[in-house]
Give the backbone structure.
Amino acid sequence: MLKKLIINNFAIINKLQIDFKSGMTALTGETGAGKSIIIDALGLLVGSRSSIDFIRTGQEQLNVQGLFEVRSSSPIFAILDEYGIVHDDNQIIIKREINRKGRNVCRLNNELVKTNVLRQVGKFLVEIHGQNQQQELLDEENHINILDRFADDGFQQDLVEYGRIFETYQAKKSRLRMIQKNSQNLAQRIDMLKFQIEDIDSAQVTEGEDDKLEDEKNQLSNFEKISSALQESYRGLSENNVGVVDALGNVRNQLEEIMDYDKSYKELYDSVNGAYYQLQDNAATIADQLENLDFDENRLDNIQKRLITLDNLKKKYGPTLDEVIEFDKKAHDELKKIDIDDDTEDKLTQEIAQAQANLLELGKSLSKKRHKTATALEKSINHQLKDLYMPDAKFDVSFRSLDDDNLSNKGIDQIQFNLKTNVGEDYKPLVKVASGGELSRVILAFEAIIAEKMNVETIVFDEIDTGVSGRVAQAIGDKIYKVSQFLQVLCITHLPQVAAMSDIQFEIKKETVKDKTETKVSLLNDLQRIEAISLMLAGTKVTDLTRKHAQELLELAEGEQKRLD
C-alpha cells in the first residue's frame, strides 16, 4: 500500500507530504483545489507520461516521491530481481524528477531506471480509476480484456499459449505475403544476380591480380629500356677490369695497408669494405636479372586483354578488384537466401495452415471457458447492481465468432457488454444505454467483484461517484468500503455519504501565499470531519442543522461499517 507521498513544485502544489494508512481514505475539497493533481502526481510514480507543463510556475523542476509497502507475494520482487535492484524488506521507494529541459529521472530503491520499468512495477502498485476507465468500459474493443480479467489461472495460461502461437502465425503470414507480393520482382532479381555472378565468376578473379599484371605489363612494355639499363649497369660495375667494383677493390686494398695506424683509417676501411661487398652483390643480382630477362610478345598481349576484362568488372561492380570480389560474395549470399525463400513458400503455406488449425482448436477451448466466465460475471454484476439501486437492470455478455481467416490475438471471440436498465426493454450496447451515474455504478460493480483477485496494492477512485446522489450515493460508499477490506482505497469524492464511509478523510484547499496559489492538505479529526461534511451537505453556508445532519451521517456510516465488516 501507499504509505507516504511527497510532492514538490507540481502544478499548484509547492511542498506537500501526506502519510496514508490502510482501509478507505477520502480526499475531499472544492473543485479545483488540487485533489486530482495529487492523483496525477501519484500516476507519475507508477510510470504515466510526464510533461514540463506539470512544473510549478517559476520553478525549474518538480519531484515526486512515494513509499510503498508491498506484500511479500507481490510479482514486483521478481521484476526488481530481473533488473538487479536491491530490496531488503517489503518496502519500495520511487522517486521521479522532471526539469524544464525535459530531463526525466526515475529512481527505484535509489537505482536509476527507465520509465518503462516504473510502468512494469506500477501496474502491481496502483490502479487509478476515473474518466479513462469509463472510456475503457465504453470501448467495445476492451470488453474482451475486461472479461478475461475475471477468468481463472488455467484460462490465463491457455491465453498466453494462444498468443504465442498467434504471433508465430502472423509472422509466417506476413512472410508469405511478402514473398508472394514480390514474386515477380524476386524473379527479376534472381535473373540479375545470376547474370552478375556468372559475369564475375567466369573471369575467375583473384585478389591483387590487377596489381601484379600491371607490374608485369610495365616490364614487358619497357623490355628494351630495362635490358639496356641492366647491361650498362653490369658493365659499369664489373667489365674490362675498369669497373667500379675493381676500382673500389683497389681503394679497399690501399686502406687495408694503413688501417692500423689510425682509428679514422679503420673507419674508412670498414665503410669502403662494406660498399665493396654490397656492389659485388649488386653486380651478381644484375647478372641474374639479365640472364632471366625474356620478352614474350604474346604474353604482353594476353596481359593487356586480361586487364581490360578486370577494368570492365571494376567499372560495373566496384572501383577496386577487392570490391568486385566482395560484390560477388554478397550476390551469392543473396541468391542463396532468395532461393531459400522460394523453396519455403510451400512450406510456409503448410505451416500457416497447421498454426491456424492449432489456433482454432485452442480458440474454441478459450471460448468455452469465456462463456463460463461470462455467465458467472453476469450473475455477479447483476447482484451488485441490485445493491447499487438498479434492481431492474440486467447486465449481459454477448459473443460473436470471428471468421477462421480473421482470428484475433485473443481468440475466436468478439465480446460486447450489454445492459437493459428497465423491465420490458431489450438489451442494448452498454455505450448506448448507460448514463453517467449508471456507468459509475457498473464500473464500481466490476471493481467490487474483482477486488479480491486484483494483484495490486492500492486502488484510486477519482470521482467515480459523479452523477449520483441520495441512497445511490450511500450504496456506492458501501461498495467502495467493501473494496477497501481487500485493498487500500483512495477516493476523491464530492458526496458526503461516500466521505462519511471512509476511515480517514483529508481535506484539500487552495490558499494564496505571497501572491501564489498553493494546495494545502489537512488530515481531519472528528470535529473537523463534521465541519467538512456539513459543507458538502450545505454547499455554502453551514448551520447547526447541517452539522447535526453531518454528525448523524457519520454515525450512520460507522454503523454501516460494522455491518459490512
Q: What stands out?
A: The chain has two domains: 2-130+421-564, 204-337. The two ends are 20 Å apart (CA to CA). The CA atoms of residues 257 and 362 lie 108 Å apart.
